[in-house]
Amino acid sequence: MSNSTIGLNDDLRNYLLSVSCRESKTLKDLRKETLILKEAQMQISPEQGSFLAFLVKVLKAKKTLDIGVFTGYSSLVVADALPDDGVVIACDTSEEWTNIARKYWKLAGVNNKIQLKLAPAIETLDKLIENGCKGTFDFSFIDADKINYQNYLERSLILLKPGGVVAIDNVLWGGKVLDSQDNEPATRAIRIFNEKLKGDERVLISMVPIGDGLTLAFKK
């Protein structure tokens, strides 16, 4: 029993990974290739990937959103957890990063489940709404520019079915949410987003201290 959350040093985290994370060779190779990029910190951790796959299975999801693809790790783990007729609408603006993603999606045999939309995510989401996709998605993962987190959430909630789940990454923002001297736009945006979501009666929420902080929002 414990009335607080345990902290993880490197040894304990490595133990956690060793006994709970079933990361495929393709995922490991993708992570290694991403590590050479200067933006490598943008990739989700393997334990986050396992958690996303678990959520998708529990939800019995078929239609999902990946808002912020980067090199494709989150899209891959979600697509692999989906049934054969499942789909990931993957939103990003970088051809360079998503070229890496495409390679590993193909290697993993899930490229047929992923529809990549190279455009600003708000445009892609608005088109889905306009094209009659309201209330048809089961799951949405938000991991893109922090300034637009509220915009991505609003559109995700329109597109999700009741009982659908939004997972929002980076909500602890490396601890910078606590630094009153840090007024960078992204930090302010995360703080405002977190406070607003806490009072949002459209959803049930739980903030999980995994990776850089992951909030789950269940659409009522």
Description:
About 40% of the residues lie in helices and about 20% in strands. The protein has about 220 residues and is an alpha/beta fold. Strands 3-2-1-4-5-7-6 form a seven-stranded mixed beta sheet, with helices on both faces. β6 and β7 (about 215-220) form a beta hairpin. α3 runs parallel beside α4.
Low-pLDDT sequence parts: none
Category by helix and strand content: alpha/beta
Distance between the termini: 31 Å
Instruction: State the helical fraction.
Output: 40-55%
Query: What is the radius of gyration?
Result: 17 Å
N to C succession of SSEs = HHHEHEHEHEHEHEE
Indicate the overall shape.
globular
Q: State mean pLDDT (0 to 100 scale).
A: 96
Strand percentage? 15-25%
Biggest beta sheet attributes: 7 strands, mixed
**What is the count of DSSP helices, taking H or I runs of 4+ residues?**
8
**How many β-strand stretches?**
7
Strand order of the largest sheet: 3-2-1-4-5-7-6
